[in-house]
Amino acid sequence: MDLRRVRSDVERRDRVRLNTLEDVVDVAVDGDGRVVHDERWDLFAVFDGDVVYHYCRTGE
After folding, report:
1. Beta bridge partners of 56
2. What is the pLDDT of residue 38?
3. Among residues 31, 38, 28, 35, which one has the least CA distance to residue 7?
4. Would you say 31 and 22 are in contact if contact means Cβ atoms under 8 Å apart?
5. Confidence at residue 12, expressed as pLDDT on a 0 to 100 scale
6. What is the pLDDT along the chain (60 residues), one digit of tens a residue?
7. Dihedral sign, CA of 51, 49, 35, 38?
8. 20 to 30 A from 29, CA-CA: which of 11, 23, 48, 52?
């Protein structure tokens, strides 16, 4: 996976910060998507069209 391409793709999307990991999972289930986890940043995200929904345990 080309991380530069992924970062560029994320930067072009609208971002919605969620309050909990459970919220991210709910978005994935409702949109028939999957949760992606970035271990380096402990960030969880769901890509849905032009929007990325995300939650970070560190609050950033």
Report:
1. 43
2. 86
3. 38
4. no
5. 84
6. 556 666 667 678 899 999 999 999 999 999 999 999 988 888 999 999 899 999 998 765
7. negative
8. 11
Q: Based on the structure, what is the number of domains in the chain?
A: 1
CA 52 from chain centre, in angstroms, equals 5
Question: Which residue segment(s) compose the domain that 39 sits in?
Answer: 3-56
Strand order in the sheet with 14-17: 14-17, 51-56, 43-48, 36-38
Looking at residue 24, its amino acid is V
* pTM, entire model: 0.79
Instruction: Output the 3-class SS for 31-43.
Output: CCCCCEEECCCCE
